[in-house]
Structure formats: C-alpha cells, structure tokens
Amino acid sequence: MVYKIFIAIFLAFMIYNLYRAMVVMNKNSAEQPPMSKYIGRRVICSAIIVLILLIGITTGLITPNPRPY
C-alpha cells in the first residue's frame, strides 16, 4: 500500500510540474524560472515512478495483472 501512495504522490507532483510549465510558457515574464526547470522535474519524477514500479514488481510487493490468455 505504501508503494501505491508513493506512486500517487509522484504522479500528482508530475501533473503539478506540467501545469507550472504551462503557466510559464504562457507568460512572457523575465522574472519567472525557465520552463525547462519544471519539465526536468517532470522527467525525473517519471523516472522515479518507473524505478519504484520495477523494484516493487521484482520484490513481489506489487503484483501485475495476469495475462489475458
């Protein structure tokens, strides 16, 4: 259950960073941080999610769906 909570938190953080990048992209203000900062955070979050999923599957804490056939 803890794995699923971590994944949900990282997904929410990923969506937040995507939203912040959209806001920065739409505003042409010089005092805002660059959009690549938020996009980079989003990429790191997705890499962490993949690692959490792989570790969870290999240790047996997360069981994938069975094959449909």
Can I get a quick summary?
This is DUF2909 domain-containing protein. This protein is mainly alpha-helical and 69 residues long.
Task: Describe, in plain words, how this protein is organized in 3D.
This protein is mainly α and about 70 residues long. The protein has one domain. Helices cover about 70% and strands about 0% of the residues. The chain contains 2 helices and no strands. The mean pLDDT is about 85. This is DUF2909 domain-containing protein. It comes from Thalassotalea nanhaiensis. Keywords: Membrane, Transmembrane, Transmembrane helix. InterPro entries: DUF2909 (IPR021313).
Q: Looking at the structure, what is the overall shape?
A: elongated
Main beta-sheet annotation? none
Please tell me the total number of domains.
1
Instruction: Note the beta-strand portion.
Output: under 5%
Which class of secondary structure composition applies to the elements?
Answer: mainly alpha
Radius of gyration: 16 Å
Mean pLDDT: 87
Number of extended strands? 0
Number of helices: 2
State the helicity in percent bands.
over 70%
Order of SSEs: HH
Which parts are unreliable, with pLDDT below 50 for 5 consecutive residues or more? Answer: none
Q: Report, as a whole number of angstroms, the end-to-end distance.
A: 28 Å
Protein name: DUF2909 domain-containing protein
Transmembrane segments: 6-23, 43-63
Keywords: Membrane, Transmembrane, Transmembrane helix
InterPro entries: DUF2909 (IPR021313)
What characteristics describe this protein?
69 residues, mainly alpha, 2 helices, 72% helix
